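Dissemination and training. As part of the outreach component of the grant, students in the summer workshop were shown how a complex can be specified as a set of sequence lines and then modelled as a single object. The example used during the hands-on session is reproduced here so that future cohorts can follow it. Participants entered these lines:
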Amino acid sequence: MKQMKAGIVLASVLALATGASLAAGKTLIYCSEGSPAGFDPARYTTGTDFDASAETIYNRLVEFVPGSTQIRPGLADKWDVSADGRTYTFYLHKGVKFHTTPYFKPTRDFNADDVIFTFARLTDKNLPFNKATNATYPYASDMGMDSNIAKVEKIDPYTVKISLNKVDAAFLQNIAMSFASVMSAEYADQLMKTGKADQINTQPIGTGPFIFQAYQKDSVIRYNGNTEYWRKGDVRLDKLIFAITTDPSVRYQKLQKGECQIMSYPRPADLKAMQANPALKVPSQAGFNLGYVSYNVTHKPLDKVEVRQALDMAINKKAIIDAVYQGAGQLATNPMPPTQWSYNKTLKDAPLDVNKAKALLAKAGLPNGFEITLWAMPVQRPYNPNAKLMAEMIQNDWAKIGVKAKIVTYEWGEYIKRARAGEDDAMLIGWNGDNGDPDNWLGTLLGCEAVDGNNYGKWCQKDFNDLIVKARSLPNQAERTKLYEQAQVIFKRDVPYTPVAHSTVYQPMRKEVDGFKISPFALNAFYGVGLK
Amino acid sequence: MIRFLLRRIGVVIPTFLSITLLAFSLIHLIPGDPILVMMGERHIDPEFYKLAMQKLGLDQPLYLQYWHYLVHALHGDLGLSVRSQVPVMQEFLTLFPATVELSICAMIFATVVGLGAGIIAAVKRGTVADHGVMGVALAGYSMPIFWWGLILIMVFSVQLGITPVSGRIDLLYDVTPVTGLMLIDTLLAHDMDAFRSALSHLILPSIVLGTIPMAVIARMTRSSMLEVLREDYIRTARAKGLSMTRIVLVHALRNALMPVITVIGLQVGTLLAGAVLTETIFSWPGVGSWLINAIGARDYPVVQGGILLIATLIIFVNLLVDVLYGVINPRIRHAR
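and obtained this result:
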């Protein structure tokens, strides 16, 4: 009897201590594709991580206009750039509140100290906070932020000056990226005092439109709408829930059944059925990405421009778009997507011409063709849904001009490592735009300083490189555009790689969802999203 | 009995050590490392790469890494996940209850349906019912879990709208985890609607995960029952005029159950292996999908620790089964 009584008491205590509540008001459930590794966006590199943190919980000084590659003021209302282009002065928005949660109650509004802490974290390896967390910031490093930011100074509580070591015309775009999300210095202090610095990655505090509530790995992330959000009208939901659903077919089935209202990354094969479903809408946008075939110009005979031209004009891109992208792609001509400013509209692809390609090979002294390796990625990427099939189609196209391609593949990390070491002859690869700046395409993928990095073809052409280096240092967009247009002409002349396709981005959602904008950067943000 | 136990535990130690070595070697044999996988096509500054590998302790020779892992594991420290920087043990303990709940429900389904089907097939031996039941069992045994899961979702969730598609509960219910077992947590919260939702979410994954064990149990029950039904005491019971139901359920089943229980014990491993796929299809937040993701991300501590914990669990269940045999049948206990 005593035991029974004790059991009843224990059950009652537990019942009081715990609870189940039914979400009321406007709740949007988003079927996301995976679990975030954490909620500190600076530590990670993927959209899955950024959607769960940077796009919901945080803001940046400068932000991308939703659905666009253009920037707009974020936590900085405005900014000045010095005449030499190396100093930026930001004037901060007043009255911005950091989130109040059970684990942190801010005593002050956002100010210059938070900006200084944010950038110190990314640039100063010896910052006590960095030592305490043992974290690294790969994206900031990749964008050169750690080496280029010389100094971040507080002019007054709402003015901050950032000085650069060298001019970087894409600096504003770079700090609009997820990794530069502004953190609370006051929260960091609290964490340091309690010896729990790493908690910044599991219990995040930001200024963004949604307040982190709870996360259950591989299951769900819960957010509450931020009623005190500084940009009025951006928060139209009471609750936002990420239902982590790794399989795309299951995501679609959940969407059909109304178990979620928006889903990420549909399977191309499901798109037709989705478009025919009266309960759904499937807006799309030309992808800000590029899938291409890179030629290693350090390997013979790919060092000869005629050979690369021949291979380029033998590829039937139209057939690839139909089969590999199942129509959900756009034929690529330039080394950047058409929505990127400075895209050279005058350039045309060499027409598909087997005879001319053979003639070019003969001119290069290879009338009987040759053998090369063609590497195919082992993974599906947003810019290439099926690299193996694409490789097989290209192999077939090249066989028609006498080029025997042997398809090679490696595990993904190994693939990149070996490709950077220059082991490939030709390889399939691609890129998703990071920041909407042309240098992110031409400099990152084709610049001489990238030959040990993302310039997989190792193509270092002086006239091309001079143009992009000069363009990077100019503040004026019109002047930069001219230089980038010329650079694209050189690219087309030398064919260091063959642009194949820009894959179209589809975002299936239920009809009641309102205000969702597809991000060109393959991110999912819920600013201004509501339910009808 | 103590000698028997010590002998069994003596076997467990080398098994445990072999598992640590195997788990460590296999994941390190796969090319790539966590930093390369995370960065994908992005550029990595060599200095940055060196620093990141150093911070993860991956710059040391493999034998040293293994030694550190082993020493820490013996102290109960499985390290931090490379990706989330959360202790592996903590992640495991958060996710394991979901796998346990699903496995128990799958086992209940497999046992109830498997036993029933096996008994019917044995009693109706050679009839259409026998062939039908055994045909279904064979089909169930050879069913690819991924395909089976998607078909059930398509029919019962999307077309008929009877069951939910995936997850553990309707996400509009915000249930505070106490035990991690959703059925119990919803009951503790006194929320019957949430409980019903959790129960309905268990139906399809339990069927999918329980199908293979169900088929094994059905086949084993049938053959075991057939053997028992041929025994003299069954003939005697018949001669005494007992009803068929009484003969089957009281006299035959009890004796036929021994080998079936063995099979049920052995299915624990099958369930955990099957959970990997089932959890992926049904977005079930258990240790199966956790391990799969960790392999993809080369999250070494998670893969090593996860495999070790699961293997330990299977070793423990096997040890328990061995000991139980010893208790039930003293001949096993004394055998060398």
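Residues 93-279 of chain B form a domain with the MetI-like fold fold (CATH 1.10.3720.10). Students were then asked to discuss how this feature might be tested experimentally.
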